Amino acid sequence: MTHPAFPSDVLDAIHWDANGLVPVVVQERDTADVLMVAWMDCHALEETIRSGNACYYSRSRQRLWRKGEESGHVQRVHRIAIDCDADVLLLTVTQLGHTPSIACHTGHHSCFYRVLEDGAWTESAPVLKHPDAIYRSPA
Amino acid sequence: MTHPAFPSDVLDAIHWDANGLVPVVVQERDTADVLMVAWMDCHALEETIRSGNACYYSRSRQRLWRKGEESGHVQRVHRIAIDCDADVLLLTVTQLGHTPSIACHTGHHSCFYRVLEDGAWTESAPVLKHPDAIYRSPA
User: Fold this and answer.
1) Residue A1 has what pLDDT?
2) Which residues contact B50 (CB under 8 A, 6 or more apart)?
3) Contacts with B7 (C-beta within 8 Å, 6 or more apart), sequence order
4) Residue B26: in which H helix or E strand, if any?
5) Into how many domains does chain B fold?
6) Who's near B56: CB < 8 A, 6+ residues apart?
7) Beta-carbon contacts of residue A66 (< 8 Å; ≥ 6 apart)
8) pLDDT tens for each residue of A8-49
9) Contacts of residue A113 in chain B, CB cutoff 8 Å?
10) Does residue A6 belong to any structural domain of this protein?
11) What does the entry list as the binding residues for Zn(2+) (chains A, B) (predicted)?
């Protein structure tokens, strides 16, 4: 999914929050798993649309975050949807870089690897690759 | 999924934002469709856990929003997951009240009914029931 140019009203239609951001839900196309939630500013969305690879805005680092730039765990974007209030985006992606796929910096498939069970947040999925091994040798 | 009591560290583990809220991704169990994103404060989460039905915090109305209270489109909650940063929740639900299921106040199945196509946000799914009919006769 690559658009070399697109009308500004694609961006204007979005209700950016007070910080100029929107939350972005990321769903894996093949499994339908929700992999993560990240944030975009307008520059991140523009780059995502132009390149076809997911680019977010890192609130902690306060800069664009090209997903996979360190880990190699790039996300190829197939589809971008927007919700009724135009304040959340939903990306449908292929998560590249590892099999089975790893979206989370902890080495889990999905960031949502803890589930409420018996009154506690409980890990429900394994670490597929140790973070030291992910970030020692960026692809 | 009903927990008559649960430890406070379930709530304490969550990184609530400056307004005391977290975003909540809602995924339908049977279809794996992402239905919506809403927000919870700690009271909404407590009620959701206790009742087993989704309760959110409405930012526009500034009060608890028992999903389906007007529309009848209640969400039965099967699973609550939390992400690596503990600042987003993921609910797995059965969307009740209509067949096929309607989560969106617009009468669409999912709130994400518009997709970026050819440089414009384009409706990709039908209205299943007109909002006037949904909100005229709450179940």
Assistant:
1) 52
2) B2, B3, B4
3) A119, A120
4) strand B22-28
5) 1
6) B24, B38, B39, B40, B44, B64, B65, B67
7) A47, A53, A55
8) 899 999 999 999 999 999 999 999 999 999 999 999 999 999
9) 81, 84
10) no
11) 84, 104, 111
By C-alpha distance, the chain B residue nearest A119 is B6
State which residues form the domain around B103: 20-134
Q: Is B39 helix (H, G, I), strand (E, B) or coil?
A: strand
> How many residues are recorded in chain A?
139
Q: How far is B88 from chain A (nearest CA, A)?
A: 7
Which residue type does B31 have?
T
Report pLDDT for A85.
96
Residue A3 belongs to some domain of the structure: no
Give domain status of residue B113, yes or no: yes
Residue of B nearest to A116 (CA): B80
Mean pLDDT across B26-31: 98
The DSSP bridge pattern shows strands A22-28 and A34-40 to be: antiparallel
Compute the average pLDDT of residues A88-101: 97
Going by C-alpha positions, the residue among B130, B48, B32, B53 that lies closest to residue B96 is B53
Look at residue A6 in the predicted model and tell me its pLDDT: 65
Instruction: Give residue B5's pLDDT.
Output: 57
Q: Is the ipTM of this complex over 0.90?
A: yes
| A5 vs B contacts (CB less than 8 Å) | 119
Is B4 inside any structural domain?
A: no
Return d(Cα A134, Cα A104) in angstroms, integer: 10
CA distances from A83 to A32, A123, B105 (A): 18, 30, 11
Q: Residue A69: give its domain's CATH number.
A: 3.10.20.810
Identity of the amino acid at A3 = H
